[in-house]
């Protein structure tokens, strides 16, 4: 399945929730959910239809997939990996998604959105334990240090992002050091540390059919 390249505000309107896909804009009155909270299309303003159990599970799966910006293949592969681990598959799945390098960059506040974080990683601006990593899906381990490359620290992009990041709070499982523009993973995120508003059990049920 190809990645969606259209207006991202339509995605939030389709799911009926704010997914913060456009960064700081989502916190303003310009957010589409604030002004047009209905399904996109000619008949979008009609009342949302009641969904079947399958439909509820599908919409929850699509919502989470779009929040993290993955293709269906990437998303399913991550779920399959989580289902092989000990413990609750749903929580394991969310933890794997949070450990992605692009998500860690976003959580540190070094990108306004996960989409921007993926671009930053792909363009070679990020190091893990001092080595350049340009793979957004790279899974960060406890104890590793994620940082902006020395050559990139003086770029206007990171100067601006750093000022914005200082006003944000990194999650409890990441120790942020904005003087060095880096973060150290001090533990795996617990379910209560993940603020993504989804019911992961519905996604487990969807893929268990």
Describe this structure in words.
The protein is built from 9 helices and 5 strands. It is of the alpha+beta class and 209 residues long. The protein has a 5-stranded antiparallel β-sheet, covered by helices on one side. Strand 1 and strand 2 form a beta hairpin. Helix 5 crosses helix 9. It is globular. 30% of the residues are buried.
Task: Briefly summarize what is shown.
The protein has 209 residues and is α+β, with helices and mostly antiparallel strands. It contains 9 helices and 5 strands. It has helices at residues 9-15, 32-35, 53-68, 72-83, 89-98, 101-107, 114-122, 156-165, 200-207; strands spanning 126-128, 131-132, 145-148, 174-177, 182-185.
Biggest sheet: strand arrangement = 2-1-3-5-4
**N-end to C-end Cα span:** 20 Å
* Global structural class: alpha+beta
Beta fraction: 5-15%
């Amino acid at each position: 399945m190809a990645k969606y390249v259209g207006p991202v505000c339509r995605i939030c309107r389709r799911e009926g929730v704010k997914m913060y896909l456009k960064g700081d804009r989502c916190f303003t009155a310009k957010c589409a959910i604030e002004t047009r909270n209905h399904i996109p299309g000619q008949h979008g303003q009609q009342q949302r239809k009641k969904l079947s159990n399958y439909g509820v599970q599908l919409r929850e799966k699509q919502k989470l997939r779009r929040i993290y910006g993955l293709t269906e293949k990437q998303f399913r592969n991550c779920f399959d990996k989580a289902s092989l681990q000990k413990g609750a598959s749903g929580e394991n799945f969310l933890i794997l998604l949070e450990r992605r390098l692009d998500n860690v960059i976003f959580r540190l506040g070094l990108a306004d959105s996960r989409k921007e974080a993926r671009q930053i990683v792909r363009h070679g601006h990020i190091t893990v334990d001092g080595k350049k990593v340009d793979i957004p899906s790279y899974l960060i381990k406890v104890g590793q240090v994620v940082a902006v490359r020395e050559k990139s620290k003086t770029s206007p992009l990171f100067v601006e992002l750093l000022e914005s990041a200082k006003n944000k709070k990194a999650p409890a499982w990441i120790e942020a050091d904005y003087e060095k523009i880096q973060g150290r993973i001090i533990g795996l995120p617990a379910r209560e540390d993940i603020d993504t508003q989804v019911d992961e059990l519905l996604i487990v049920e969807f893929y268990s059919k």
